[in-house]
Design goal:
CATH topology: Four Helix Bundle (Hemerythrin (Met), subunit A)
Number of domains: 1
Strand content: under 5%
Order of helices and strands: HHHHHHHEEH
Strand order of the largest sheet: 1-2
Largest sheet: 2 strands, antiparallel
Radius of gyration: 16 Å
Helix content: 55-70%
């Protein structure tokens, strides 16, 4: 099995889990926050997809789907269109409201671009240095694994919040 096959599988699981996590929830349920400073399901899913979109677009030297394909307009959030959610305040988190269909639509679009990009890579491409600000410098393979780890952590958080919301 090639490394790119493993990456394709991992990113495919993220897309499936996004759909399962938001399925059947109303916009109100997706906005549920179990505490004053907690993140909502909508914010967690939006953020994890935004980060994947941002990082894969940068690696592929392509524009972000969020901006290029009009997802920022469809979501209509009162945030900077380039925002990915890093450093959001409690008030910023509250601004991220969306339907399950909008969240899964964006996740599907980003997932498809991610699959296309990963399918175009050979094993050597994963060794390309993409960020020299770190010691050691970050390779494409390490960056993609980092995105997978971050996405899975946020999915677990969103699933936990869903469970809390259903019991509230």
């Amino acid at each position: 099995m090639k490394s790119t096959d493993l990456l394709l599988d991992a990113f495919g699981r993220i897309g499936e889990e996004v759909g399962d996590t938001v399925e059947g929830l109303s916009e109100e349920q997706l906005a549920f926050r179990p505490g004053a400073g907690a993140n909502s399901i909508a914010w967690l899913v939006w953020h994890l997809v935004r980060v994947q979109d941002n990082h894969v677009a940068e690696a592929a030297d392509e524009p972000e789907i969020w901006l290029e394909d009009g997802w920022a307009d469809r979501f209509g959030l009162s945030l900077d269109p380039a925002d990915t959610g890093y450093g959001h305040s409690v008030d910023d988190v509250a601004k991220v409201r969306a339907s399950a269909e909008l969240l899964t639509g964006y996740a599907d679009a980003v997932g498809e671009r991610t699959r296309r990009y990963l399918s175009s890579l050979d094993e050597e491409a994963l060794d390309r240095v993409v960020d020299e600000r770190w010691d050691p410098p970050v390779t494409l393979g390490v960056r993609l694994i980092s995105v997978i780890g971050d996405d899975m952590a946020h999915l677990g958080q969103a699933q936990y919040v869903r469970g809390l919301q259903q019991r509230a």
